[in-house]
Amino acid sequence: MRSLKSGAAVLAASNLLLQALGMVYMTMLGRLGSAESVGVLRLAQTVYYSCQGVCLSGLTLAASRLSAAHERDLAAVSAVGRSAYTLFLVLFSGIAAAMLVGNDLIAERFIHEPATAAALIACLPCLMLTGYENISKSLFLGLGRNGVAALSEIGEQVVRLAAVGAFLFSLSTGSSERFCVLVFCGMTVSECFSTMFLGKMRQKLLLPAQNVSFTQRIVRIALPVSAASLAGNILSALETVIVPQRMMHWGMTHEQSLAAIGSLAMLAPILTVPSALVRSVSAVLMPELSAAEVHGGREIEYRISQTLRLTSWIGIPATLILLPCAPALMQMIYHTQMSMSAVALYSFIVICSYFQIILYAALAGLGMQAQCAAAEVLLRCVQFFLTWVLTGQLGLNGYLCSDLLCGLAIVLVMLVLLARTKPIFGLFRSVSGSVLAGTALAALELVLWKWWQQSEYAMLMAMTVSLAVFVLVVGKVLKSRPKRV
Predict the structure, then answer these.
(1) Mutual orientation of helices 35-69 and 340-365 as an angle, nearest 10°?
(2) Is the pLDDT score of 485 beyond 50?
(3) Distance of alpha carbon 156 from alpha carbon 91, whole angstroms
(4) Residue 107 to residues 111, 121, 244, 416: CA-CA distances in angstroms?
(5) pLDDT exceeds 90 at position 304
(6) HEC secondary structure over 127-186
(7) Which of 460, 442, 462 shows the shortest CA–CA distance to 451?
(8) Is the pLDDT at 229 greater than 70, yes or no?
(9) How much is the pLDDT for 296?
(10) What does the alpha-carbon distance between residue 207 and residue 72 come to, in Å, rounded to a whole number?
(11) To 10 degrees, what angle do helices 4-32 and 275-295 make?
(12) Strand, helix or coil at 368?
């Protein structure tokens, strides 16, 4: 079985750099545009990412699994990529036609924000290029060529930062509509870079495609996932649309509700720093399990339990350490305020998302993605109802509560699905231990912060010390290998 640690390490290093670049990117957007403009961009990006999810979620999963299964036949891998991108172009054509004809209708009737209409057209070239990029990255991840995917992501983010910054600095007029269009134009420039880079890598590392089609096999894997993604993204888009309306029902103005959504988008890069490692492990775990199933690999159960243990000890303490400082960091970086209750709720949502990422990767690697996706869509329907009720009653905190409750339910369902197929060893012990460690480190951080409060950099010093202790503790815990059951 290929090395999970080395593959994850490469992606983790690149993802940490991407996290830093993402923080700079969000800071730039917050400085060159208002919170309201970022909120409008969030609404437009909801449609963009919904279309991307529908088109690519199933295809990238199928490409990665089939690439891992045919890792010894590079010509077959090229044929997988060709078939996957052909299917993507069919899906993209339908979405592009709908956008070109009905962008005003979508913006006014569904998003309830006319300023997003032009952005829905501007996102189409970016979406087409993203399809080629994501499918190509999935092929390389399936083959264990994680460095290629990492270089593509880093280069794309650097180009995006430069292109979006240049467009906003030179062409922005303060209009939210123009702001969104310029951001998507910059994103398209960055996708051009990654598309050309990955095209060169495919020519260099893969053999010419065989005269064989993988369309049917891809459809069998991708169809349930894409259908579930379509339903989930429709619910997500509707949820994003109703949240500002329900916040206004609670007592906010339209501008305040958009600013609240924009603030959440700014908070995400601060609290999701640990996702660099979690997403790296999931990206390696899924094709590794697929290859192990095909080639008769052993220790699958042990690998799954180890990744869950790693997720617990990385994601939970790190998020709890970031939690106390997040409001101050929001004020320092973005000049935007957010209540501690909202930050706390969002932190727990982030922790749930880490387990969802790993559990979905494990289930997909074992061929159970359809059951997992169906359960997730069902629970998202429940979340939509809760969002409508709780946001109208509690405002932003109600919206976050509905997201948290649904996230917990999805994790429990995924654990049940996984436990029916592969045993889960020591998860409760890992979670309880990491929660205790994270709480103790957060308490240490608060004590040091108060102790050094006379210093201008008290918060940063306290957080640095806590993170240093966290690295030492987690390193010691993860070096102790649990017994195989």
Answers:
(1) 20
(2) no
(3) 24
(4) 5, 11, 14, 40
(5) no
(6) HHHHHHHHHHHHHHHHCCCHHHHHHHHHHHHHHHHHHHHHHHHHHCCCCHHHHHHHHHHH
(7) 462
(8) yes
(9) 54
(10) 11
(11) 140
(12) coil
